[in-house]
Amino acid sequence: MKKATRTDNSRPRRRWLKWLKRIATLAFFVLVAVLLFSLARNVDWHEVIETLRGYSPLMLVAGVGITAVSYLVFSSYDLLGKKYTGHGLSTGRVLLVAFVCYAFNLNLGAWVGGLAMRYRLYTRLGLGVGIVTRILSISLIANWLGYMILAGAIFSFRLLELPQNWEIGATGLQFIGFGLLAVAFAYLTACRFSKRRVWHIRGHEIVLPPLRLALMQAALGAANWSLMAALIYLLLPQGLFFPSILGILLISSIAGVITHIPGGLGVLEAVFLALLQHHVAPSLILAALIGYRALYFLLPLTVAFLVYLVLERRGRKRKRAQARQEG
Question: Phi first, then psi: what are they for 199, rounded to 5°?
Answer without folding.
Answer: -130, 145
